[in-house]
Structure formats: structure tokens, C-alpha cells
Amino acid sequence: MVLRRLPETLVNQIAAGEVVERPASALKELVENSLDAGAKNIDIQLRDGGRTLIAVTDDGCGMSPDELPLAIERHATSKLPDDDLVHIKSLGFRGEALPSIGAVARVSITSRAQGADSAWVLRIEGGKVFDVEPAANPQGTRIEVRDLFFATPARLKFLKTARTELTHAVEIVNRLAMAHPGVGFTLADEKRTVIRLAPAQGDLFHQRLDRLGDVMGRAFFDNSIRVDADREGVKLTGYIGLPTLNRGNANQQYMFVNGRPVRDKLFYGALRGAYRDFLAHDRYPYVALYLELPPEGVDVNVHPAKTEVRFQDPALVRGLIVSALRHALADAGHRASTTVSDAALGAAQGSGANFAHQIQSRPFSHGGGLADRAATFQAPFQNLDMTPTARQEEVEIEATPDFPLGVARAQLHETYIVAQTKDGIVIVDQHAAHERLVYERMKTEMSKGSIARQGLLLPEVVELDEGSAARIAARVDEFAKLGLVLEPFGEGAIVVRETPAMLGNVDVHKLVQDLGDELATWGDAVLLEEKLADVAATMACHGSVRAGRRLQGAEMNALLREMEATPHSGQCNHGRPTYVELKLADIEKLFGRR
Ligand code: ADP
Ligand code: MG
Fold first, then answer.
1. Of 170, 277, 321, 352, which is the most exposed, with the fewest CB atoms less than 10 Å away?
2. What's the predicted TM-score (pTM) here?
């Protein structure tokens, strides 16, 4: 065995194994360098998903001919002027990327420094460095990486299809573009331009929202809430989606720490905490958050790829995220996302088309003549509910036209409240809305100590199976805190004395039976308070606003007003909307008037 120092190229190839996993990771290093160089526009060309060519052109500060050889020297960097690993302000700092890429690919670096009148090119192929030569280039830098991994065939075998590699590259560039909205980006492969993002204008919030809308989609632009919070020198800004804008995976959750895209467990966990009350556990909100903190509060030097970070005070960061998001969501109040009504409109348009089709395809020779059929179409609707309760509100509409959820005009199918707003129609799912209101009220009243109760004129005895009765009996104190006053009443029976006032008239029998069933599934260790959303849902099911119950106009309007006043009432406890709004403009579109 001979102990020896490894040749430089081998060292760099080993480092490349960590830094450059695939074309997208090489691309990430190049784009980060361009950003560090102060570029305002960055253009990217890929061939074969980046395997045969990655070219990045920027208009940044450039490099002089003396600097070029240093750029590819291991641990040579312009970014740690004071040898200070604590106060890192740039994206790069390790001086590793270019030598690593140069060790495993054929690279040319063409650059013209700011103020210089000529450009120079340096080539490095599989670690072999060529002389610096004159070249042509405007101010800035163009780096071409050809035949990535040609010098390390083992790694080459692990590359996926060009398509997959391209997807990774697009993802990387999108993330960096979200972190730097003032910079323009394009990305093209041999077939088409995949990314085209002009530098965003205006103040930072506007820049970001524009850029996020371009990358994450119009729906996010329309349905997101601004976040702006700080605590002990840590600043959290950005945009978060309304809970009704959600999806089945975390692919639209972005986090940036001091301008650096990161994927961090702490962040995903904090998001779950913040949205817990509004989304089912298998749904994920859309989020783009920017965390800024003094460089000494975070270590970005955890991994060569720099996508993981370590916070000095993780609890502070987590707490900031959860509380800032909860506040932002509370301020959004009853807003439900427009995607909901868009989806509804899509469906309505679909059925409208079908209806037209049915009319046309009905043979005219079948049954009476045209006049008869026309008469049936024009006949007044049967059973049209014109109860005075719905009509008497007309005066009120003119007096106060500005209720966001409008004034109730009718109840349909004993399930939906139809309200008229200033410029549209609102349809409320009365049961989902009520369930949410009960939950929110329970939370508020609980936080104040106890839930208001109303006594039953005659206490009711509910007969149950013995198991259920015993389970309920074991928790009478917990139920009392939730406004439900019960007592064991011999074997297999419970007597109910008081119910939560917020429920109105309750079907006591069914409520207690259902609670007994739920307790059986939750097990003995679970606190009812932890299951508040479920308890509220069960209670709301038996309250006076449940589905299938006719409501008076005053009851409907009271429900609408309470929704407006209650945070988070735009979605039910599972993230489904409680109401849908159709603007007159959209309705006109349905009828082809626009
Ligand atoms: P690091 O970014 O960690 O410093 P790199 O190997 O990525 O290490 O780059 C080495 C050096 O090359 C940088 O510090 C910078 O001075 C120079 N450099 C690389 N890319 C560019 C660019 N696009 N424009 C200007 N300078 C660059
Ligand atoms: Mg770098």
C-alpha cells in the first residue's frame, strides 16, 4: 500500500460526485454564479436535457483574463472576501462548482469584465486546462458545458431520459427565478422555449407576486394572501394560497432562505401546522415564503448542494411561520378561492351544452307539435318556492347592497341558500357553512373559558348500548366544557340536561348516539379538545341548520352575516368551500352575452 496525495483532477471528480448529480445541478451552479455576478438577464440553452449541452449566458460583472484561470481552481472564489463563513451573502462560496464541472465535462468560459473592451475564453476538458485566448462576447459571461460526465462514464449511466432531466432543470430555474423576480430568465431546448420570464417591475411585493403568478399559475395570483411578519430579527414575507386552492402533493410549496431555495422539513411541518384546521391531512396548500434572517442565524453549509439549512433557533422560525400564516388566513376571513366558482362555471357550461344537445336531438315527430312543446317550455315552474320570507328582504337589498355574501333570496332543495350580491350570486352550502361556524365558535368560546349552554325544558333520557353509555359517562366533564351537560342514568342510558346554545334546537338522541360511536373509534386516550373539529362537525349535524331543513329568511341572513364575521368560514373543516360565488359577468358568459 502506498500512501499518496490524489491528483487534482481526481479530487475534483470526487467533488463533482457531490455537487453535480445531474445536468440540473450543474445548471443550478451556473445560474447561481450568474446571480452572484449581478446579472439582470440570464439565458439558458439545453440539448438532450442538458446532457450534451448546457449553455448559460448572463450580463453580469464578468471576469478578466487573469481571473479566468482562478475561477476553475479548486477553492478559488471571489465571494468570501473576509474569510468569513458566518456572514455568507452570496449563493456560492465554496469555490467548488466550476472545477468540479470542468473535471467531468468539456467546458468553455467566455467572459468580458465590466468596462473591459475585449473578451477572453478559457477551456477545460476532463480536468485538462487550456490557455486563455481572445474571444468575442458582450459584457458578461457565457459558460458552455458539453458532454457532462464524459470523463466519468459510471455517472453517465445514471442519467434519465432527456425529458426527465429537462423537467429537473426547469424546476431548478423556476425556483431561482421566484427568489429573484427582478432578473429575467429564458430557458430553451432544441425544440422550444420552455421558460420566458421578463424582469418583474415595481416594489418587491409586486415583483414577487407577478413572478409567482407566472411560475405557479394565475390561480395563485388571484387566490393568495400576502404575508408580512417578523420576530426577533427574523423576517417572513411572501404569499400563501387560500385553503380552497389546494392539491394532493407538496409540489407547489416553495421556501427561500436569504434568497436561496431550500427544501426543509421544518418548513413543511410548519405549513401543516398552520393549515391544520382548514385542510384534510392529504391536501397541500400553495405557498411561496421568503425567510430573511441575519446570516449568523442560519447555516447553509450543511450540504454541497446547499438546499438544506440549519437554523440556530428552529423553534423561533417554526413559531413565526405558524403564527404569521394563521393570522394571514384569519384576516382573509370568509374569502373562498375563485377557482371554486371557475370549476362550477366549467361544470355549468358543460351541462348547458348537454341540455342544448338534448333539445336538438329530440325528434320533432315524436309526440305533439312544435307549438305544444314550446308551451311546455314556457309553462310556469311548478312548486316554485315564493315564500314571503324570501321576498320580504327586497327592501333591505336596496338599503344595504354591500354585504359580501349578499342577501338571501331563496333556499333550494332545503340545502342551499341562494343570495344576491351587488354584482352576482352566492350559493351557500348551509350545512358545510354551519359546521364551520360551530367549529369556529367552539374554538372562540373555549378560549374564553367555556361554551354557552341552554337548558332543556325537560331533560331527555337517551338509551344507548352499554359500551357507548359507559364511554360517554367517562367523559361527562369534558362534554360539559363543550356545552353538553350529561349524566349517567342507570345502565345503558344517559340523561341530557343542557346543550351548546350555538346549535339551536338539537336532535338530542341522535347527537348523543353519534358521539358515542365516535368515542368508540377515537379510543380512550384522545382528548375531545383535540377532536374539536370532529365534535363540532357531529354537533352541527344535529343542530338546526343541518342539510335538509327548511330555513326562514331571517335565519338564512343571520347565517350569511355570521359567515362574513367569522374567520375561515370560506371553507369547511376539510378544505371544501362553504360557498360559491358567480359574478354577473360570468353568468353573462354562460348565456353567451359576452
Ligand atoms: P463559488 O461560486 O462558490 O465562488 P464557483 O466555482 O461556482 O465557486 O465559481 C468560482 C468563481 O468564478 C466565482 O467566485 C466567481 O468569481 C467566478 N465566476 C463564476 N461564474 C461567474 C459568472 N457567471 N460571472 C462572473 N464571475 C463568475
Ligand atoms: Mg458558484
1. 352
2. 0.67
